[in-house]
Design goal:
This protein has 15 helices and 24 strands. By secondary structure, it is α/β, with parallel strands linked by helices. The longest helix is centred in the N-terminal third of the chain and has 21 residues, at about 110-130. The protein is globular and about 70 Å long. It starts with a strand and ends with a strand. It binds nicotinamide-adenine-dinucleotide. This is Aldehyde dehydrogenase 5, mitochondrial.
Length: about 500
């Protein structure tokens, strides 16, 4: 059967050892049924390697290890020690940052510069969580002199975590960082198309000295490995990032099995609104970052662009020019902004929406076709004259695909922006503080960016209104997801 590690040559020419086993109880192991699956490089469509696939029996082993680690030491130790381990992990990530970024770029298809940005965010966030570990304070509550009352935060237990393929390592850190800081242990499933950076990071978990069983990583598919996690009776909490359809399915499984606490970070169709008084150059840059960053595979992508009528022609023209100017191609080539889509399915999905846009009568302004015939590359695509009845206006495409609509007044923009089942993020571009605050207050979105876009900070919570999710990641809010309050009343 397949060895547990393989020597891989990165597109940079560097070789490294890639773990390909499941990471269970501090060791890389073969899956019990010795099943494996292929991992492809989406830029070349060539095989990178095979990794072991976890089935229900493997998930059971991982959960048992996590359960034991939770009860034996991790949940009970001085939280400062958990912080120290997370800092060790962040230091190791920093020492390995070039390798991690190259693995991510090869596996996901994103431009190397984007992957380098992701790894920077991962390191910052792990350090943020490390600092939080010993600052999860409780409260003393005065209810009169006959009682001594306190409330304290306790960890929840074994957490199941299921992540997508668009930001494999960043989502790994958003899930593992706060869970561990708060004293939980985890069984995390990566997305089937992008398992590699998480396994490499598991090697660093071991090197960081994090006790066996605290972190378990299982590669595999949604229907088998994912279901085994969401149905498992010993898992007490489930955190998921991915599509709204799968999120709903997972929530049902969590409820039917043992009423796991659930956090969901789901899809979006986020509005990015440009007002007449915007700084055109800056606004166009933010439209570009909004929809073409990470090849458009971003849950909060600014995919619906609204431009006010007085500035419409100018902004659309500049947006088109900037999109056509973007360097698309080999993620490892200097200056490339947009790499490959992560899979053949994503490429086909995007191209089918191009056909849908044309059929429904929208105007194709830029792109709209595959680039080359090897690798899943798509030209940055813009459709204008898009109306709310069109599919491309309301459905999440998850690619470098913007739809543009004209508006007259701020209230009209707000109404159109909010006319969506989603509510993850929104952008506003204006020089007026009055306009910015008026619109920001009325938008139904978990994050509103003004004169910026796709701009994250470890200390700022992120999550969705409406069908974009439940709960928040990052910031203080993340720890709400990974702790439960206990009330203690002592009669004196
Ligand atoms: P998905 O939501 O099905 O997959 C995300 C993760 O969930 C993967 O790890 C997958 O293996 C797992 N999963 C799938 N079915 C499961 C199940 N029944 N039980 C447990 N886990 C399960 O997304 P996808 O099919 O890879 O992509 C489809 C669309 O979803 C994309 O085109 C995009 O629109 C959207 N998407 C959104 C995000 C986001 O961050 N919001 C991320 C990925 C995909």
């Amino acid at each position: 059967s397949l060895p547990l590690s393989q020597t891989i040559t990165l597109p940079t020419g560097q070789t490294y050892e890639q773990p390909v086993g499941l990471f269970i109880n501090g060791e890389f192991v073969k899956s019990q049924q010795h099943k494996t699956f292929e991992v492809l490089n989406p830029s070349t469509e060539e095989e990178i390697c095979h990794v072991y696939e976890a089935r229900e029996d493997d998930v059971n082993l991982a959960v048992d290890a996590a359960h034991k680690a939770f009860h034996s030491e991790w949940s009970k130790c001085d939280p400062a020690i958990r912080g120290k381990y997370l800092n060790n992990l962040a230091d190791l990530m920093e020492a390995n940052k070039d390798t991690l970024a190259a693995i991510e770029s090869m596996d996901n298809g994103k431009a190397l510069s984007m992957a380098q940005g992701d790894v920077g965010l991962v390191i910052n966030y792990l350090r943020y969580c490390a600092g939080y570990a010993d600052k999860l304070y409780g409260k003393l509550v005065d209810t009169g002199s006959n009682y001594f009352n306190y409330v304290k935060r306790e960890p929840i237990g074994v957490c199941g975590q299921i992540i997508p393929w668009n930001f494999p390592l960043l989502m790994w850190s958003w899930k593992i960082g706060p869970a561990l800081a708060a004293g939980n242990t985890v069984v995390l499933k990566t997305a089937e198309s992008t398992p590699l950076s998480a396994l490499y990071a598991a090697k660093l978990v071991k090197e960081a000295g994090i006790p066996n069983g605290v972190v378990n990583i299982v590669s595999g598919f949604g229907k088998i490995t994912g279901e085994a996690i969401s149905m498992h009776p010993k898992i007490k909490k489930l955190a998921f990032t991915g599509s709204t359809a799968t999120g709903k399915h997972i929530m049902k499984a969590a409820a039917d099995s043992n009423l796991k606490k659930v956090t969901l970070e789901l899809g979006g169709k986020s509005p990015n609104i440009v007002f007449n008084d915007a700084d055109v150059k800056k606004a166009v840059q933010n439209l570009i970052v909004g929809i073409f960053y990470n090849s458009g595979e971003v849950c909060c992508a600014g995919s619906r662009v609204f431009i006010q009528e007085g500035i419409y022609d100018e902004v659309l023209e500049e947006f088109k020019k900037a999109a056509e100017h973007l360097k698309v191609g080999d993620p490892f080539e200097d200056g490339v902004f947009q790499g490959a889509q992560t899979s053949q399915q994503q490429l086909s999905k995007i191209l089918s929406y191009v056909e849908s846009g044309k059929t429904e009568g929208a105007t194709l302004v830029a792109g709209g076709e595959r680039l080359g015939n090897k690798g899943y590359f798509v030209k940055p695509t813009i459709f204008a004259d898009v109306t709310p009845k069109m599919k491309i206006y309301s459905e999440e495409i998850f690619g470098p695909f913007a739809v543009v609509t004209k508006f007259k007044t701020a209230d009209e923009a707000i109404e159109m922006a909010n006319d969506s089942e989603y509510g993850l993020a929104a952008g506003i571009h204006t020089k007026s503080l009055d306009t910015a605050t008026y619109v920001a207050n009325k938008l139904e979105a978990g994050t509103v960016w003004v004169n910026t876009y796709n701009d994250f900070h470890s200390n700022m919570p992120f999550g969705g209104f409406k069908q974009s999710g439940i709960g928040r990641e990052m910031g203080e809010a993340a720890f709400e997801n990974y702790t439960q309050w206990k009330t203690v009343r002592i009669a004196v």
